[in-house]
Amino acid sequence: MQIFDRYTNLLDWTKCKENHPRVLGRTLDGSPIACWQSGGDKKPAIFISAGSHSTEQAGVTAAVELIDQLETDHQIYVIPCRDPMGMNGFPYVLSLSLGEEPELGSVEDSEEILKDSGEVLYQDEETLLVIIGEYGYSTSGLYGRFFPGEAFLEPLVGRRIFFPSSAEGIEGTAPFQRAYTLVVSPTGEILHI
After folding, report:
1. Is the same domain home to 144 and 170?
2. Domain enclosing residue 70, as ranges
3. Under a CB-based contact definition with an 8 Å cutoff, are residues 167 and 55 in contact?
4. How far apart are CA 8 and CA 160, in angstroms?
5. Could you report the per-residue pLDDT of 134-157, keeping only the tens digit for each?
6. DSSP 8-state class, residue 155
7. Same structural domain for residues 170 and 95?
8. Domain final residue, candidates 48, 63, 85
9. Measured CA distances, 50 to 14, 33, 54, 92, 128 (Å)
């Protein structure tokens, strides 16, 4: 299975495809959200998207392969990666606030950097949540852990929270290799994007 280390690797690999992507928009770091169209003219169109969670690399690879391989008379639209920032890894998303990618070898390294660089909003035995500049960073997943409107989430309303992948032994999900992306809604609820 083709694993893309960075979003730019995916874009470079797809340059050899017969058709070129259309840019639907850009992420907060300026990365393009790319969509490929193939197939025929028949409607309804088939829409395929993958990579909403940065660790789901099998879906990204399958979507890229389908760009040219799916044969149908229907229009096909493929977005192989909906979270380019997360695909680039936790050190990358940290660099958006720090200015450079830190070396992260352990959870302790990330905790030290987060504490030294950010304002601690929440901490317990398992989780550290900080804000650094425009973004929130956590050492673990927060989805479903807190009631909407918790006071410590107020500075993060409308902002993204990134936390690192941590799965050992699954290709494309090693610790810090990817970053999951959450967003805090206007009502203070932590949501997946």
Report:
1. yes
2. 7-85
3. yes
4. 21
5. 999 999 999 999 999 999 999 999
6. G
7. yes
8. 85
9. 15, 12, 9, 20, 29
Total structural domains within the chain: 2
In this structure, are 96 and 170 located in the same domain?
Answer: yes
What's the pTM? Answer: 0.90
17 pLDDT higher than 80: no
Are residues 52 and 67 located together in one domain of the fold? yes
Q: For residue 181, what are the CA distances in angstroms to 13, 90, 91, 131?
A: 24, 10, 13, 14
CB-CB contact of 150 with 63 (8 Å):
no
- Claim to verify: residue 130 and residue 101 sit in the same structural domain: yes
pLDDT digits (tens, 9 = 90+) for 164-185: 998 888 887 889 999 999 999 9
Closest CA to 190 of 138, 132, 113: 138
Examine the domain organization and report whether 67 and 118 are in the same domain. Answer: no
Contacts of 61 by beta carbon, 8 Å cutoff, 6+ apart = 1, 2, 3, 4
The whole-number pLDDT of residue 117 equals 98
Only one residue has tokens 């088939």, namely: 46
- Tell whether 113 and 167 lie within a shared domain: yes
| Helix axes 107-117 and 90-98, enclosed angle (nearest 10) | 20
pLDDT over 90 at 188, yes or no: yes
How far apart (Å, rounded) are the C-alpha atoms in residues 188 and 87?
A: 25
